[in-house]
Every structure is written in C-alpha cells, then in structure tokens.
Amino acid sequence: MAGVGMSGRSHLLDLVSSDQFDVTAVCGSRIERSARVACDFGVPKAYDDITEMLATENIEGLVLATPPEITATALAMALKRGIHTLAEKPAALSSDLLESALAQVDSTLGVVAYNRRYQDHVHRARQLLRSARIGDVTSVSCTWTAPFSQRYHPMVDTYRRSVDSSQGMVLDTACHIIDTLAFLQLPPPRIRKARLDSQSFGADIELTLGHESADISATISIQDVGDDDQWSMSIDGTEAKILLNRMRLTVDSESGRAEYPAADIQRPVDDLLALASGRQALGASLPAAIGVLRVIDQLCAIRRRWQRPRAKALGRLNGAC
C-alpha cells in the first residue's frame, strides 16, 4: 500500500478487512506517519520510500493512493516488477507523462480507480444506453458540486494545498466526469467553450464547459458550493431520459418511471484479485486513463482563453468565500 492519506486509509481498511489480502507494508512520504498508520491497521512494516519497499517486500499486488505528480513513476516501477496495481485517479498530471511512464511495461497489469465504474446504477445506465432503449442521445448535462475552495487551500494538510493552476479540480474532478462519459460510451468531447474560476493562489475551483460530440450537445458544470460532494448526469434521448446521481438512477419514458438505487458492485481493491486471476477488472484500463487525460490536456491548452468571472474573483480575493 502506497499512500497513507484519506484515500489510502480508505483502501487500506478494505484490504485489512478482507480475508483475500495479506497486507505486508505501507508507504508514505513521512516515516512517522507511515508507522502510525501501520500501527493503527496492524500492518507489519512501514516505509517512506516506495523504491525501497518494492525492492524489500515480496509484493504481488499494490494500491497507489499517491499524489498524481508521482503516481505515474510509481506505477511504472510496480508494473516493471510484474506487480498487479490499482492506482487512484488520475494517475498522472498529463497524458504524455502517463503514456511515457508506461511505454516499456505491461499495461494490462494495472487499472485506475475511477469511482463511478464501481457503482451498479451507473452500469445499469450503460446497459440502457448500449441497448438503445432511450433512443438516440441528444444532450448531456453534468453537474458536480463540492466545497472546492476549502479543499484546495494552502492551509489544508493534504497534497492539494500545493496544487498549481490546472491542477485543482480540473485534474481531480473533471477527470471523473470525462471518465464517466467514456464509460457510458458517449463520444469524447470536442471543447467548444470553457470558463474557469480559481483561488488567488492558483487552484482551480469552478469550471463551466460546453462541448459537442457528433450530434450531442453537452455541458459540464463544476461548482464550489455545499458541504459535501454531489453529482448528477442528465442524459436526454429521443425515447427516454436518464438521470444519474449519487443516490439513484431514474429512467423516464412514455411507459412510466423506473428507479434503481445506488449500490456498489465491488470494492476497488478487489480489482487486484480480478487482475491476478485474469478476470475483467472494473476500474479504467491504463489506455482508457490516458484517453481521459488527453481531454484534460485540451482544457489546459486553452486555459488562456478561459474567462474568469471578475466579480466572483474579486470577492474571493477579499475573503468572501
């Protein structure tokens, strides 16, 4: 296990609470923190150097819950040793970095843990779209909200406090939306317009994006509001309408309304078992993860054309968050 932050501890709990895994070591950036987490979870060894951990321990499977600026390198190191690896998204800062890191390794040994891929109601939505029961898709609207101004702040004790421009929620949250669209097998977006708002120290905290894919119009809105994460996707078809959110899938058609509650299919760490046995993992393949980052690269490339809402930006600089 590499990474002992909130995400890493969540995966670690899944690992130690399963009789399918024997967790031999954890690794973090500071040995005292790694040792504390190892003690809390009953793990025998703690490291602050992943190279040393991989060279010392007999590791068959690895979870990487590390900051994206180091994940690609760590992923390549693990895959070169033939270790089945689950990486937290987005796995790199750019598509070029991830593609370069994976050039000489077996990419089939790794997957990236995009959350929506592990939820049953999202799989149901995918099946509906593949069966054409909603007809031709005409429009898609995606809305993600969270307290991003608090999450990306220099005083927060996570890796997010040091993010630069285009490394805030554009990389951390927009990739979730892009991956979900890809998982639902909707065409990759061609960006038509974008507007960004950022904190005074550079972290992206809001985004409005319009794009077109074939005959489908789509909007993506990431808003800095609320006290927790909320998300929804509305997909309009010629025969029915799908609404996906964190609670349920709702399908409205001429024959009536059908609802399916959200439920997890499996825990992300179970992908390691799937990889080891040759079964299909639920997480994103590494080529798919590169594809998501290519769209994020497009966003970064047009950054100079983004419009910053002046009144809101001034409000934030004055401390009115």
Report low-confidence residues grouped into runs of 5 or more: 304-321
Order the strands across the largest sheet as they lie in space.
Answer: 7-8-9-6-10-11-12-13
Please report the number of helical segments.
12
Distance between the termini: 36 Å
Structural class: alpha/beta
Stated plainly, the CATH topology of the largest domain is called Dihydrodipicolinate Reductase, domain 2
Radius of gyration: 20 Å
CATH 4th-level superfamily of the largest domain:
Dihydrodipicolinate Reductase, domain 2
Share of β-strand residues: 25-35%
pLDDT averaged over residues: 88
Describe the global form: globular
Please write the string of helix (H) and strand (E) elements: HEHEHEHEHEHEHHHEEEEEEEHEHH
The CATH architecture classification of the largest domain is 2-Layer Sandwich
Number of domains: 2
What characterizes the major β-sheet? 8 strands, mixed
CATH C-level class of the largest domain is Alpha Beta
